[in-house]
């Protein structure tokens, strides 16, 4: 293992990440203990996840995502936006990019302070009681609630995520409530095993649940406020098929250093 890890920290609507430029392959991808330590808020840098930016033929780069528990994770939307900003700051990309992540190819466009990231198409959904179950790069449970501000998201999210149905694979649990011309969302994330300030794939799933619940069709943009800021999800909906899915929101450099 290299004795030093050079890193940058980014946040997207309060979802924070450690980013490592691993184009030279100096970071040991299999070292889960190190990843977990880097993400630790008391003994490390502190983050909801860690990403490696790697070279990939025919793409601008490849995104390797780890949850804070040290294990390689499924797609992370806010992480995707942050790694695009990181690639931009490294001079790898300019206004547009095409990169590879665990769930496939992603396109993104970059403007000051904002990254608009293409997410995967979604062609099906499930139900669990009143809740919607959607796979938007990560599995999500979306429940419409009232008085979300007062809700104990940790307690309620933990209970759903660890019930008999989801305990093995895990699921991200989202609670959503109408607010003005948009929606307010809070998320309990598997892998972090706590409420996070934002979840991009969760906001995407929540917006799709809104479109299903309210029977919207065609080209749709839904503003979703999370604890860490404002996100915008747009897509084309035809029945229960979602195409041209984009997650737009902030991606900001916080600091860099050597661990």
Account of the 3D structure:
The protein has 259 residues and is of the alpha+beta class. It has helices spanning 32-39, 77-89, 153-161, 200-213, and strands spanning 6-12, 15-21, 49-54, 62-67, 96-101, 104-111, 114-118, 126-128, 131-135, 139-144, 172-179, 182-189, 194-196, 218-226, 229-238, 241-250, 252-258. It folds into two domains: 6-119 and 252-258, Diaminopimelate Epimerase, Chain A, domain 1 (Roll), CATH 3.10.310; 126-247, Diaminopimelate Epimerase, Chain A, domain 1. It is built from four helices and 17 strands. α3 (153-161) links the parallel β10 and β11. The protein is globular, with a radius of gyration of 17 Å. The mean pLDDT is 96.
Largest β sheet strand count, sense and barrel closure: 12 strands, mixed
- Taken together, the total number of domains comes to 2
> Could you please say which CATH topology of the largest domain applies here?
Diaminopimelate Epimerase, Chain A, domain 1
Run of helices and strands: EEHEEHEEEEEEHEEEHEEEE
Spell out the CATH superfamily of the largest domain: Diaminopimelate Epimerase, Chain A, domain 1
Shape type: globular
- CA(first)-CA(last) distance: 13 Å
The CATH architecture of the largest domain comes to: Roll
Task: Assess the beta-strand content as a share of residues.
Answer: 35-45%
